[in-house]
Design a protein that fits this description.
Blueprint (H helix, E strand, L loop, with lengths): L17 H26 L14 H24 L10 H11 L2 H14 L3 E7 L4 E7 L10 E8 L6 H4 L3 H10 L3 H12 L1
Helix pairs in contact: 1-2
């Protein structure tokens, strides 16, 4: 069974209200609850395995929605885990890697903002272990565009629930506020672990 984690970032942030963060966290808790319900059903032998098929079956429905719920959990854990900082720019090995792979921090930031504007659900900066480099990807829903053997380092939630209370339709303003709250120490640590 999965347990919801607690995050220090569930408070008033620079440009993101406590109400937004609290409501957003409730959605994360909902993903945890739904994942556990699905897991129990699959693990408890309640599913007719003989009826499984690719068009429609309970097995297919539960397995697809399990990935949606679990991805929702993990995406939000990265998101909440690296918020609450003072923004700015990374330092150290991550800064060097961004410069190597993206040209400069500002070039990456501009590109990542555009990725966030283009996405329907998520934008991620990932470290790809196979290619040994950073790049940005879009996830239009929680469980799409998964890149195997890549580690999400920066997770930008661009579903409307992440910003609508504070910004209405002004997603670009929310993305700027998101950057102002990144904790680069957390991201740097995650990068170093990913590279190992």
């Amino acid at each position: 069974m999965y347990e919801a984690k607690k995050f220090d970032s569930i408070k008033e942030l620079n440009g993101i209200s406590e109400r937004t963060m609290t409501e957003h966290y409730k959605l994360y808790e909902g993903y945890v609850k739904k994942f556990n319900e699905i897991w129990e059903k699959l693990d408890g032998g309640e599913v007719d395995l003989g009826a499984a098929n690719q068009i429609y079956s309970e097995m297919r429905g539960l397995k697809v929605e399990m990935t949606f719920a679990l991805s929702g959990i993990k995406n939000h854990e990265v998101y909440f885990g690296h918020l609450g900082g003072s923004g700015g720019e990374p330092k150290g090995k991550l800064a060097d890697q961004i410069k190597k792979d993206m040209g400069s921090f500002q070039e990456w930031k501009d590109y990542f903002k555009a990725t966030g504007m283009a996405g329907r659900g998520w934008a991620w900066l990932v470290w790809d272990r196979d290619m040994g480099r950073l790049y940005d990807i879009i996830g239009d829903t929680q469980n799409t565009y998964v890149n195997w053997n890549s580690v999400p380092l920066v997770a930008l939630d661009v579903y409307e629930h992440a910003y609508f209370i504070d910004y209405g339709t002004k997603r670009a303003d929310y993305i700027e506020a998101f950057f102002n709250n990144l904790n680069w120490d957390v991201i740097e640590k995650n990068f170093e672990q990913a590279v190992e």
